[in-house]
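Sequence design from tokenized structure. All designs in this work follow the same two-part layout: the structure record, then the generated sequence. An example of the structure record is given first.
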């Protein structure tokens, strides 16, 4: 190794010498120049130790001109290299000083690789360099002052490395008047920002230094950079008064981020006014972030003089007191306002409601009092309202019913009273509703309990709610967590709660619920935590809970449960703490009394008394760490303590193996047309091989489809991912970027059913009847699962041969299910996404011509997808298989469609169809009785196909019935063929 290193040092020294000679001798032929550049690159390549994507393959080809090497660009005369762009190539190794030989280089981009070690000082000799990007590597050490000699530098990006030490003065102060873009963010740089008064950065437009350890003040010399557009100094340790002088003449400023520092306001940290007035002239200002500093004083009235262009305004986590000034309403373009975690008091000014563009409003964790202004219900775009942790009183305004875009409503920890307005159910996009820790009374309105849109959680705990648990709760089939604890709810627990199939967390402790605990709760497929403590539940603890593979945390304490409890299954990790105060319980749980033969019923009285006096203690109930942190993250993102925006939150939540866009690019040869294996309504499918040799199919949603999908893509995919069945295609992972959305699936060796039904080579033998019936049975099983058993009911919407794939042993897997759900928001009448995105799916039909049910075809895309529609498509598929005719191609005499044509032969005229089918999918050598059996099966298939394609959706069989029928046909055929086997073997 050492030898090798010194050798390459020697080589690079050699090239430096050569480069030196070039400069000295001056008039080298252009051929010589390019040869020396080539040698520099060869030497640079020796520093690269890993190139998994073979990016530098062309560099090894001896007959390719250096100007044609990947990433290399020469000048017009091909006499010198002027650009080297190897960004995002997964290269690893060190950056060789030999690069210094490329003396005509103007652009050097090695960003987004795995280069480590130091930045070579020799780069300082690239005097022509205008753009230098080494961002997102693993570079360490200090930024060398040699970079200061690059006088033509316009663009420097060293973001996201491990660079340390101070910023060299030379970077800013090199006499270059061109510097436009400087990004040193996300390193561990320390010291002050070395921008001295005498260095004018007149051309500077972007200065990004966020996430470092910089100290001191914002340099006054920035005052000369009057063209500044972005200044991001977030997450450092900068201090002093907020810089106001600097910004007085910055008309182009768009984004000013100063959050997470130690800034204070003027006049001994009492006056924010001067800073706001300094910004009044920045008439392009769009985002102003001052969160998490030490800013004190009242929010001044001249907030209203800030530029009207302002769209986002963060003042959270400071020390502001006093009331919210009504002048804030001048900021009519504001979409996000965050004033949470200060010491604000007074009422919420009704003027807030004049800011009609508001989408997200965070006022939580202050001391706001009075009533919630009803006028807030008039903000047409409001998607998130967080007023939690204040002292708000009075009623929840009825006007919230008008907030059709509202997704998250957080009113917890206030003093709100009255009933939960049933009209809240009109917020059809609501995903999170938290009204916990208030003084709400009355019953839980059926309308609110039936809000299917709730996807994340419903928290009504710690109020004074009474009455029964509404049956409508069973409609919440997407919600992850329900907390109704610490109320006065009574009655029995409806077994229908078992329909909340996505539920992971259920807390109904601290109420007055009685009766038994329903078996169905234990059957919830994803339930991880259940707290029913401190109620009056009786009877035995259902076996289903113990049998649950997912349950981790349980609390049955302080009820009247009785019977024998063993320490098996989900109970294995529990201690007696989960069963306290149920003296009728006995068994093998650690610390629990062993069972005696005779039960002592009189003991039951004690727990009843106990359950009355013991208030629910939450810490008894420890949620599993993962769930706790998951829920905590969710809560944190809404409570304003640790504001995570929605996108970030989604990355936190996503649980797939990571496959990056780059890896997909590599796996598919850059989505090369030769990797294309299919294309459909929603996009193209490419095959590919991952580095670990997994063969994959990548379904890239086309931009129209992707554009119609809102931010819920990942969550929806998660639901799809839970949908597991041997006849449904599994999603390995998803790749989601703003401009690119793809599903990654396993590659099926035998391709699609389409390919087998209509082989391109006539030589290809088609499938025989046994195989075809097996495939149809598989398909029916898969779709029946989607319709009847999967966690969330999924309508396929586009069942046809090209969406049925065959694996090695010809098992059929249905693919492409649920994409329609992603686009259209499921089979419910109410689209869970923005109505705007719903409308923008123009042209996306539900289903394919030929397979689409008449009721869906007539209404086009506006009609909701239905399970009956899938049954119709399955029927067409059966008839297609029997007749061997594509439903799309042929004109069927007088009939308008395949199924009508078949129907016109039924029942007396079927023979030609049956004989033709028999000819195609059986062998001539078939024994007579087997032929007869095949005939019967073909007739059955036709009948089933016709039943499924009946005009009226309600008279079609359910997919469950269809699957049952198919499976008995399959059985019948297999029994008959095994008879044949026996017959032949007995003959032999
Ligand atoms: C190199 O590229 C040029 C044009 O960019 C082309 O004309 C030439 O044929 C290429 N040479 C080789 C060896 O590929
Ligand atoms: C900051 O840099 C680290 C690596 O040093 C990287 O993992 C992280 O994604 C970067 N953060 C951002 C926000 O770019």
């Amino acid at each position: 190794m050492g030898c090798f290193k010194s050798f390459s040092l020697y080589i690079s020294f050699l090239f430096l010498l050569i480069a030196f000679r070039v400069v000295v001798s001056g008039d080298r032929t252009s051929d010589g120049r390019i040869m020396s550049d080539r040698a520099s690159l060869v030497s640079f390549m020796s520093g690269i130790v890993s190139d998994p994507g073979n990016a530098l393959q062309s560099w090894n080809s001896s007959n390719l001109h250096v100007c044609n090497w990947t990433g290399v660009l020469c000048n017009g005369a091909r006499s010198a290299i002027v650009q080297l762009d190897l960004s995002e190539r997964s290269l690893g190794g060190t950056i060789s000083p030999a690069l210094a030989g490329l003396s005509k280089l103007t652009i050097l981009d090695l960003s987004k690789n795995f280069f480590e070690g130091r930045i070579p000082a020799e780069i300082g000799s690239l005097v022509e360099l205008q753009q230098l990007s080494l961002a997102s590597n693993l570079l360490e050490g200090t930024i060398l002052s040699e970079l200061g000699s690059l006088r033509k530098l316009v663009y420097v990006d060293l973001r996201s490395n491990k660079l340390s030490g101070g910023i060299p003065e030379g970077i800013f102060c090199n006499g270059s008047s061109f510097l436009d873009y400087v990004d040193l963010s996300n390193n561990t740089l320390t010291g002050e920002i070395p921008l001295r008064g005498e260095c004018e950065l007149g051309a500077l437009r972007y200065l990004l230094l966020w996430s470092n350890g910089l100290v001191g003040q914002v340099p006054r010399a920035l005052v000369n950079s009057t063209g500044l557009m972005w200044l991001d100094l977030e997450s450092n340790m900068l201090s002093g008064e907020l810089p106001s002088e600097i910004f007085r003449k910055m008309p182009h400023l768009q984004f000013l981020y100063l959050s997470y520092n130690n800034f204070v306001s003027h006049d001994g940290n009492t006056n924010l006014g001067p800073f706001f007035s300094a910004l009044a002239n920045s008439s392009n200002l769009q985002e102003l972030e001052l969160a998490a500093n030490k800013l004190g004083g009242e929010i001044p009235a001249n907030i209203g003089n800030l530029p009207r262009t302002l769209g986002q305004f963060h003042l959270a986590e400071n020390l502001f007191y006093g009331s919210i000034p009504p002048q804030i309403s001048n900021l009519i373009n504001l979409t996000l306002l965050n004033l949470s975690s200060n010491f604000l008091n007074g009422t919420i000014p009704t003027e807030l409601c004049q800011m009609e563009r508001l989408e997200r409003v965070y006022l939580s964790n202050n001391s706001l009092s009075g009533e919630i202004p009803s006028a807030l219900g008039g903000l047409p775009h409001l998607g998130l309202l967080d007023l939690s942790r204040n002292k708000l009183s009075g009623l929840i305004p009825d006007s919230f019913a008008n907030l059709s875009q509202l997704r998250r409503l957080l009113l917890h920890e206030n003093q709100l009273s009255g009933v939960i307005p049933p009209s809240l159910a009109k917020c059809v996009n609501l995903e999170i509703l938290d009204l916990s820790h208030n003084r709400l009374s009355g019953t839980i309105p059926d309308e609110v309990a039936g809000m299917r849109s709730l996807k994340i959680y419903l928290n009504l705990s710690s109020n004074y709610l009474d009455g029964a648990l509404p049956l409508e709760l069973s409609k919440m089939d997407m919600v992850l967590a329900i907390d109704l604890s610490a109320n006065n709810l009574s009655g029995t627990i409806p077994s229908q709660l078992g329909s909340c199939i996505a539920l992971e967390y259920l807390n109904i402790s601290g109420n007055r619920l009685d009766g038994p605990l329903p078996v169905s709760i234990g059957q919830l497929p994803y339930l991880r935590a259940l707290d029913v403590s401190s109620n009056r539940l009786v009877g035995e603890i259902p076996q289903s809970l113990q049998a649950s593979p997912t349950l981790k945390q349980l609390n049955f304490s302080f009820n009247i449960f009785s019977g024998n409890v063993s320490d098996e299954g989900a109970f294995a990790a529990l201690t007696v703490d989960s069963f306290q105060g149920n003296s009728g319980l006995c068994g093998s749980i650690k610390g629990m009394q062993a069972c005696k033969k005779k039960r002592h019923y009189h003991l039951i009285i004690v727990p009843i008394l106990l359950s009355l006096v013991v208030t629910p203690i939450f810490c008894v109930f420890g949620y599993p760490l993962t769930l706790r942190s998951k829920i905590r993250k969710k809560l944190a993102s809404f409570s304003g303590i640790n504001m995570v925006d929605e996108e970030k939150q989604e990355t936190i939540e996503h649980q797939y193996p990571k496959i990056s866009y780059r890896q997909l690019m590599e796996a598919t040869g850059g989505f090369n047309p030769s990797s294309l294996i299919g294309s459909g309504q929603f996009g193209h499918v490419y095959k590919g091989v991952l580095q670990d040799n997994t063969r994959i199919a990548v379904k890239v949603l086309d931009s129209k489809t992707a554009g119609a999908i809102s931010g819920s893509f990942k969550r929806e995919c998660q639901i799809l991912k839970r949908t597991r069945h041997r006849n449904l295609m599994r999603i390995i992972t998803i790749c989601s970027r703003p401009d690119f959305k793809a599903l990654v699936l396993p590659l099926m060796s035998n391709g699609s059913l389409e390919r087998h039904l209509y082989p391109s080579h006539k030589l290809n033998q088609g499938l025989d009847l046994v195989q075809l019936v097996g495939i149809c049975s598989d398909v029916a099983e898969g779709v029946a699962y989607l319709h009847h058993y999967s966690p969330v009911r999924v309508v396929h919407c586009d069942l046809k041969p090209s969406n049925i794939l065959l694996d090695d042993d010809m098992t059929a897997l249905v693919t492409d299910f649920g994409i329609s759900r992603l686009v259209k928001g499921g089979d419910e009448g109410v689209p869970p996404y923005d109505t705007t995105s719903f409308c923008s799916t123009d042209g996306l039909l539900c289903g394919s011509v030929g397979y689409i049910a008449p009721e869906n075809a007539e209404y086009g895309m506006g009609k909701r997808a239905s399970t009956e529609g899938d049954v119709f498509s399955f029927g067409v598929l059966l008839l297609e298989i029997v007749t061997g005719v594509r439903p799309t191609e042929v004109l069927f005499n007088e009939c308008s469609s395949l199924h009508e044509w078949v129907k016109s032969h039924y029942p007396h005229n079927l023979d030609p169809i049956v004989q033709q089918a028999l000819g195609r999918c059986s062998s001539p050598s078939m024994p007579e009785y087997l032929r007869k059996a095949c005939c019967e099966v073909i007739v059955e298939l036709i009948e089933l196909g016709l039943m499924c394609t009946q005009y009226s959706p309600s008279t079609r069989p359910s997919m469950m019935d269809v699957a049952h029928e198919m499976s008995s046909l399959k059985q019948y055929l297999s029994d008959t063929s095994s008879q044949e086997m026996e017959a032949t073997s007995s003959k032999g």
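Residues 64-65, 68 surround 2-acetamido-2-deoxy-beta-D-glucopyranose (ligand 1) (CB under 6 Å). We note this feature because it recurs in several other targets discussed in the main text.
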